[in-house]
Amino acid sequence: MIDLKALLGQGNPPLVGIDISTSSVRLVELAQGAKGEIRLERYAAEPLPRNAVTDGNIENLEQVVEAVRRVWKKSGTRAKHVALGMPPASVITKKIILPAGLQEDQLEVQVESEASQYIPFALDEVSLDFDVIGPAANSADDIEVMLAASRREKVEDRVAIAEASGLKATVMDIESYAARAALDRVTAQLPEAGAGQVIALFQIGAQVTHISVMLDGVTVYEREQPFGGNTLTQDIVRSYGLSFDEAEARKKTGDLPDNYQAELLTPFLESAALEVTRAIQFFYTSTPYTRVDQLFLAGGCALIPGLLELVASRTRISSAVISPFKGMQIGPSVRESQLRLDAPAYLVACGLALRRFG
């Protein structure tokens, strides 16, 4: 059984969030600012070599360690405690009902007993954790508990990366939960704190788009679609004979031939908008919900010119590119002009860094 307090990062400041994705390593450090507000102290990113991480699996530990070391040095942080994320597909979560009034050791025994019903692996092969959500809805004598389990080697890979980088993994979170923690801060700034609003979040990554729909802070729908920014990069590779890394770099700078926008970028934007529209329709047909009040785009593709406007027109939903740092104080080492361009890609890293505050 994993130490829950360590997992939730209680009493371990300062703490930095490190998001290890398919394409890069991103770091965020937050601190307590004036008047109880949160301050963004620093952030940084380093690209990962292609195939160093595939489908959330660490394929080349040394390359990832090198990227983590570089991003830690580049950021200027001195914090050695880190919060890391696990891909949602690597973690099994399940809400279970247990009797109220159990002691901690009794809870652990009950959780392990229940876990064996839901986990398709031997318990000695998994890292297991749980969190008491609160009283069960339909029984005063029971409590609702969230169970989380992952293959032990997947957790140990990330712990090993931190240790090899001279850091200590204090918190291990699920990436989608970290993103939701960052999103909750943003929705709290909506009119009436977003109460009663159905909010959809599309995180467009390199290979996968992760879709989450929330209502009053509760995730009511979650899904992944195999679509991401690498589709456009591969098109650039094929069309202009560039290496993948060079294509990725030029995609960001826009240093491409005149026909790029018409022949490659516009079709990609159309495909992205179509993916979002289909996902919304699937949400309507597979759940009791018939509306989305606010749509947020996140990830490295979110700021591609024209994507937001196309999504808004196709879905006919109020849409915005999310900044997880909205409403935060900005530290002296952060360039605000650059932050506006970078922020949508830091949703998970920001959510991980927020674990510093409990």
Automatic annotation (TrEMBL):
Domain SHS2: 15-183
Gene3D superfamilies, alphabetized: 3.30.1490.300, 3.30.420.40
GO BP annotation list: cell division
Top-rank lineage group of the source organism: Bacteria
This protein's name: Type IV pilus assembly protein PilM
